[in-house]
Specification:
The protein is an alpha/beta fold and 228 residues long. The protein has one domain (6-217): Rossmann fold (3-Layer(aba) Sandwich). The protein has helices spanning 45-52, 76-82, 99-109, 114-127, 143-155, 173-185, 197-203; strands at 6-14, 20-29, 34-38, 60-65, 68-70, 83-86, 161-165, 189-193, 206-211, 214-217.
Amino acid sequence: MSLPLITLRDLHFSYAGGLEVLKGVSFDLHPGERVALTGSNGAGKSTLLRLINGLEKPDQGQIEAFGSLRQQEKDFREVRVRAGLVFQDPDDQLFCPTVAEDLAFGPLNLGKSHQEVMDIVGRTLSLLHLEDLAHRITHKLSGGQKRLVALATVMALEPDVLLLDEPTNDLDRETKQRLIAILTELPLAMVIVSHNHHFLNRVATRQVELSEGRLFEAAEEKATVLEI
């Protein structure tokens, strides 16, 4: 098997106030895997995504991404481009006046030329079938449209990994089917947090469960902690 893109080793994390939510999480994400990350509300699923790209820092343990140990803030700058996080609330991700400007923001900040950015925006809109939204006012979009545009802003960075936090929220049935088709066609590794089991059954190639601060393969008894 190819080397993992992301490796977590014995991660511990506590919220402010001392509540320990992760108690020794280990995990490998390999190229092409689409991993469903399940668990009850408050189990720490969103926190785990934020740890992967450095928005939170573990109390203990190691994070390796794309062949390098990541410890300091500077180490995660590359990770945030290559492992794109789509937030649970798209309003946290969209802040430019129009959809096209939102998609252009990330590539411009990476130093791409104007022509390169225009090509990336056009290509990304086409990939996600969002061409008709290019010049729409972002804050006037529906909740489902905002969610797809938030995904597009991450895809415009041309990542190797997608980290998706409840991607089907606010989507009607037709748009969910559209999202399933998009994700299953993408050649990217993914970690997907969702309570929509039908969606996960259609998209995921593997499922893990976060429970009582530990990570388990969903098909195994909880007595067996996930060890890679």
